[in-house]
User: Fold this.
Amino acid sequence: MDNLAHKNLNYCLKEFFSIPRQVILHNIDLEHCPHCGRFDINDTSCTACIKKHDCFWLYKNDHILSNGSKPLVTQKAALDFAIGFVSEKIDEWQHNENSCPCYVCEWLQHAKDISDDLNETIEVLY
Assistant:
């Protein structure tokens, strides 16, 4: 992949992950978080926190997108976590992801399609 295509893909991923990022950030009490949602593996307040998986996803996702050179399976894992998280929130909000027109439900439907496509691609590549 040439540099321009890589930058375009990275931009698309940042845009695509912005919706689960918003949902996750809304779920974290940033006012009381000593790191403002920035996961620190060396801090016991992070590793013992009930929201550690959310913050860790944000940290890991930021790292993946800023670096841009992570393997497809790593990016797929980030997508799968986001799908699971957003799906739980949609259930909690009592939305029907198949008929709800909100942007979060639409994102989830699109993300699941992309995840399925990535599964096929990963099977072929690996």
Observations:
- The chain has a mean pLDDT of 82.
- The chain has one domain: 3-125.
